[in-house]
Design a protein that fits this description.
By secondary structure, this protein is an all-alpha fold. 75% of the residues lie in helices and 2% in strands. It has 20 helices and four strands. The chain starts with 10 loop residues before the first helix and ends in an 11-residue tail after the last helix.
Length: 501
């Protein structure tokens, strides 16, 4: 076995180069949400088709993550990252040039595949070029990018849609992608590869399992857990995905071939606990924005850009805290730092859920939003650094692939669960199926456009505004409760083992 190449003289330059591409692909996970109405009008599409613009990207992003993490080990993280960046940038141009929703969905699938190739490599390169005593600060930067990108997406999307048109949420990726490609080529080092056989059966089992599980969850709400295609129901599809994943785990356990996911990863206590915690983080970060945005736009009558700016204090505070927390990770207790983050996350969501009403002022919302900034600043770096610090360097790609997969699966579960929660709370608070998020907003818009006089709260009639606001607030308690599971998990972190460089 060859020795590990020396780390670059200035690994921070490589990290900055990777963070540009990483930021771009995470922004694209949320940026489309503010352009839904414009895409529907311009491409003459219905709401179900436009929802697939996001779902297709998410599916194509999640399913290959285990595979692309391992590809980085086999062919080198720099090479796989740059191939994924080229695919992502080219498909972004394709997205902006499409003239039908079907072609846009197809282009988003290709874009998701490019993102899936890039994501595990960023974390793997950090693990391999930074020594353990400096890795916490690097993960702090990586975590700051991950946390801020999910918040910047809606804000940037609103500005681009309002100023230039929905196509520019994709066109903006082209110059950014080209800059990221040049920087990656010049600044990211070529690292040692590990020539091994590839577990093709593991690829098929994991891809089928993740696809069926994610597809079933994504479609469950739209068909009310009923039939998807003919007699094939949502529970059957989800059950099939679980069966494939069980078969995958058994294959990884008993095969003598080179496995796709070494189960020895989970023998490390911190990696297993971090995977649980990051699943809940993905769930919470993805699901919390929907009720807040709907409340701001439907009850208060804010524009998409104004609504997204409600979360700006969180993004700013998170960006300020994350590098500081990253430096603490190298010498402090990960359970304390991650516990502060996840505890603040859950508390802030419970707080917001309790105060959302038709008359809630901006000043009442700012304190829990700032607490969300504390959460984002404290939870990403300690969890990420602790997850990978004890892993052997030749498992960096596999470990980061699993870690990023569970985060994205958590995001899928969060988007599905929050839709169900909002619908059930709207029915409980308003008492009519017409009070569902889309229906209520449409009715409000119709009444406002017809010139309904008085009795309006923002864009919604006062008769249902309070019930709508309460429903949005109560639905936030779902991610708040699940994040508590992650909070308990990180309390059992062990201090990472000392490693001789």
């Amino acid at each position: 076995m060859t020795s590990q190449p020396a780390a670059p003289a200035n690994p921070w330059r490589a990290l900055w180069a990777l963070c540009i591409g990483f930021f771009m692909i995470l922004v694209d996970s949320t940026i489309v949400s503010v352009a839904i109405r414009d895409i529907m009008g311009d491409l003459n599409a219905d709401i179900n088709a436009v929802i697939w613009v996001t779902s297709a990207y998410l599916l194509a992003y999640v399913v290959p993550l285990l595979i692309t993490g391992r590809l980085g080990d086999k062919y080198g993280p720099k090479r796989v990252y740059m191939v994924g960046l080229v695919v992502f940038t080219a498909s972004s141009l394709w997205c902006g040039l499409t003239d039908s929703v079907e072609m846009l969905i197809l282009a988003r699938v290709v874009q998701g595949l490019g993102a899936a190739a890039m994501t595990p490599q960023t974390m793997a390169v950090i693990t391999r070029i930074f020594p353990p005593d400096r890795r916490g600060a690097a993960m702090g930067m990586w975590g700051a990018v991950a946390g801020i990108a999910t918040l910047v997406g809606p804000i940037l999307g609103g500005l681009l849609v309002d100023g230039f048109g929905w196509e520019w949420i994709f066109f903006i990726n082209v110059p950014v992608g080209l800059i990221a490609l040049v920087l990656a080529w010049r600044l990211v080092p070529r690292l040692e590869t590990h020539p091994r056989s590839f577990d093709w059966l593991g690829v098929v089992l994991s891809a089928c399992g993740l696809f069926l599980l994610v597809y079933g969850i994504q479609q469950a709400h739209g068909v009310e857990w009923g039939a998807l295609i003919g007699p094939i129901t949502v529970p059957f599809v989800i059950g099939g995905g679980i069966v494939f994943l069980i078969a995958f785990v058994l294959w990884q356990r008993f095969t003598r071939a080179e496995v796709l996911v070494p189960l020895s990863l989970f023998k490390d206590r911190n990696f297993s606990l971090a995977a649980i915690a990051m699943t809940t983080v993905g769930f919470g970060v993805t699901s919390m924005a929907f009720p807040i945005m709907l409340w701001a736009q439907t009850v208060l009558g804010y524009t998409p850009t104004q609504s997204a700016l409600l979360l700006a204090p969180m993004a700013i505070l998170s960006g300020v805290l994350a590098p500081f927390v990253g430096r603490l990770v190298d010498h402090g207790s990960p359970r304390v730092l991650a516990g502060i983050g996840l505890g603040s996350f859950s508390a802030a969501l419970f707080w917001l859920g309790a105060i959302l009403d038709s008359g809630t002022s901006l000043w009442a919302v700012i304190p829990p939003v700032l607490l969300l900034g504390v959460a984002n600043g404290f939870m990403w770096a300690p969890i990420s650094s602790t997850a990978t610090r004890n892993l052997p360097l030749h498992y960096a790609g596999a470990g980061s692939g699993v870690y990023n997969t569970v985060r994205q699966v958590g995001a899928v579960l969060g988007s599905a669960a929050i839709a169900v929660a909002m619908e059930s709370r709207l029915e409980a608070n308003i008492g009519s199926s017409s009070g569902m998020a889309g229906g209520a907003g449409a009715e409000a818009g119709a009444e406002s456009g017809a010139g309904a006089a008085g009795g309006m709260s923002g864009g919604l009639p006062d008769s249902i505004a309070s019930g709508f606001a309460h429903a949005m607030g109560q639905s936030l308690w779902v991610p708040a409760a699940l994040v508590l599971i992650g909070f308990v998990a990180v309390l059992f972190f062990e201090r990472p083992k000392a490693r001789v460089r």
